[in-house]
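Q: what does this look like with flavin-adenine dinucleotide bound?
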Amino acid sequence: MSTNMAKTPTDWQTFTFEMTKLVTADSLLTTPEALAPYECDGLSVYKQQPAMVVLPNTLEEAQAILKHCHAAQVPVVARGAGTGLSGGAMPIEDAVLLSLAKFNKVLDIDVDNRTAVVQPGVRNLAISEAVRHLNFYYAPDPSSQIACTIGGNVAENSGGVHCLKYGLTVHNVMGIKFLNTQGELIELGGNVLDSPGYDLLALMHGSEGLLGIIVEVTVKLLPKPELAQVVLAAFDDVEKAGQAVADIIAAGIVPAGLEMMDRLAIEAAEAFAKAGYPAAEAILLCEVDGTEAGVHDHIQSVEKVLHAAGATEIRTSQNEAERLQFWAGRKAAFPAVGRLAPDYYCMDGTIPKAALPGVLKKIAQWSAEYQLPVANVFHAGDGNMHPLILYDANKPGELEQTEAFGKKILALCVEVGGSITGEHGVGVEKLDSMCVQFHQHELEQFFAIKHAFDPDKLLNPGKAIPTLHRCAELGRMHVHDGQLPHPELERF
Amino acid sequence: MPDLSNELQQTVQTAYQSKTPLNIIGGNSKSWYGRTPVGSPLHVSGHTGIIHYQPSELMITARAGTPLTEIADTLDEHRQRLPFDPPHFGEHATIGGTVACNFSGPRRPYAGSCRDFMLGCNIINGKGELMHFGGEVMKNVAGFDVTRLMAGSLGTLGLLLDLSLKVLPHRLAEQTLTLNADFPAAIEIMNRWAATPLPVTAMAADGKRIYFRVCGTPSAVEKSRQQIDGDLFEDGWSFWKALREHTLAYFDDDPRPLWRFSVPQAAAHIQTEAIDEQDWFIGWGGTQRWLKSDLSFDDIQKLAHNAGGTASLFRDKNSATNRNENSDGSPHGNREGEVFAPLAPALMQLHHRVKHAFDPANILNPGRMYREL
Ligand SMILES: Cc1cc2nc3c(=O)[nH]c(=O)nc-3n(C[C@H](O)[C@H](O)[C@H](O)COP(=O)(O)OP(=O)(O)OC[C@H]3O[C@@H](n4cnc5c(N)ncnc54)[C@H](O)[C@@H]3O)c2cc1C
């Protein structure tokens, strides 16, 4: 099959027939019913059926599939659990969806070096479960951790409520193995703290399946802290809660987690999870962990700071059950808010913490203008906000309104010195917003990196980085006489 | 606080057009690191000054030529620090050079490395294009992570202009303890403690003793001291600083090359007839091992490989006279040959392509990292 021409039905027949020789019958899905569960990821407003879904059992099968796709120049979209929230794993028409679901084994636990080697389809939480008996755990804990895979975590550089202290996925992965489009295996890092050469390991984090297919991950394991305690503080004013966050940091404390919720989110979470949250304009959850002695000292300081910041109520978890109960509301915030309206749209911008009051005010103002309610859940410690816009997709035009509102929020994040995405990635969702954050040279540099890894543009094409054309059409890029700058450059 | 972005951009553009290799020089405190620099000197230390520091945001942005000492002093005023505890290796060390080398100090295994704390950067690529990646916020996954890619790239991918880094508060109290142990025992003991929740922030071993540093609130430190049951080492602060800066007696003048092994933390102590015990020094809780040795580059790599890691020629004071040769006649143990461990062919090829993506004319510090890059 040729690269540039659209493939004929006969081409596809041949391609599919060849594919059946590479994997077992149950690993190749082609009927519309079988493809249906794969047509979207966690961002279900975008749907697309792929040409086929392939679920390799072994590394050799995965390599053969990639070689086959490369020879036929058929694009490949990698998929973990499909919990991504930006359409990263959404299929592409006339492309293969490569599911890593069967790569679900913990290959090795190195107790002495406190690392584990796992396949990419292993669920995030399953890693901690596999090492619980050793009193170790894997630190990054996205709220989707029961379902999402470590491969997806690397591809998105996922965070969690504890990343303020323990870092993102990139800080907790020591090595990966990935396949390039020709099925060649490339190893980055390993069981050591650093490796010679460029830090391509960092580059692979957050690359959204555009640079390679991750087939193995070596993660760092941490000893479980002796003690973790969480302080819940209620405020009658969001701004005061925001100031309290700054005060805690200024007091020299690095909490394990520092989360904020606004009134709508609190009410929803309380109705759903019965966590016992007080009625308030905002609540903060501040977790401190470490040695018993250290935690006791820090909890005292945190309580003092929160008092001084004007908290109307302060509760400190007295045991593990209570700690988990305090968290239950926060962890269930998304599904809880989901019950308030037929649909919700989860945003993921980051801002300097000091900009919080202003940004929240603006969001409230726009919320009134668009007549779309917003609940705010906020990784306050690291400035990552998750405004949840409530809407009804069945009302004509409301999705479009919601998306327009969302883009305004992201543009505001950039304006105040932040970013359009803290942890959910760009996918297909934030391509337009990328044009706000980056200029021509930077986008071209991204293309050049993509080209270095994937010269045939076969891996998840069209995702994560907008073409210069797209940005030009949005009026975000200077186009002279209708000519794109550098027409000689490759685009994808 | 001069901003030389425009001048530097013009210089790179001109060099790109004339295909003139550039040797990017910050404080010139680490000119001994990597392969021998070539190219026409481009001084960047004039591009200096802290641009933005917001203690409550745990973030600092500074021009690459800003001296490390200036950054440390400024942070100190607000009881904050660079969490990765970078070595200076000279009074003129800049933040740019530190990032380019990805150098981190004794705290590295417990706090993270220089690259771990990078948030954003302005760089000039090999075509003279000025670009901004990342930002001043903790979390940012928009676009590929070019910022962290810059760390340790030795200026071969881009000229670093401005850097944003995450900072952290000072620890409240700290204490250094020692225990007697030879190397094999030290590796075992250090890893045993590292597997517990003790607030350890540095561990090293010199073959006679293990040095532990614990940090935290005063009561947490006192509790840890009881647990480790070691001897109190009064001048811990000087010890860790001397280790970080390589001014400990171990690093005193020695004509032999200094090798850096990066191996799994618990890898067994490397013992061969060709090496004296006193030529080793173990840092980073076992994962970074220093060796003074005349062994060939290939032999060193074999030792490191057998231990599950790699080695690099860190410093060679007599590079000009150390004209040793490998079996194939290539130079070793000096900076005309390779100093970093060889990369697998597919990975090397990818490095070429990445280099090309940033510096197609190969003018930025050519050959500083690998002969061919
Ligand atoms: C309720 C809910 C809560 C969430 N909470 C959080 C949170 O707290 N923090 C957070 O960061 N995210 C969160 N997410 C988002 C999502 O769970 C993460 O992005 C997660 O990492 C995706 O993992 P996945 O296995 O589902 O990947 P997928 O959605 O299947 O894929 C995500 C991206 O990774 C690529 N990919 C997947 N596997 C591979 C591979 N092996 N090789 C190469 N590329 C690959 C895909 O192509 C796609 O671009 C949440 C999502 C939901 C639905």
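The two ends of chain B are 33 Å apart (CA to CA). Chain B has a mean pLDDT of 94.
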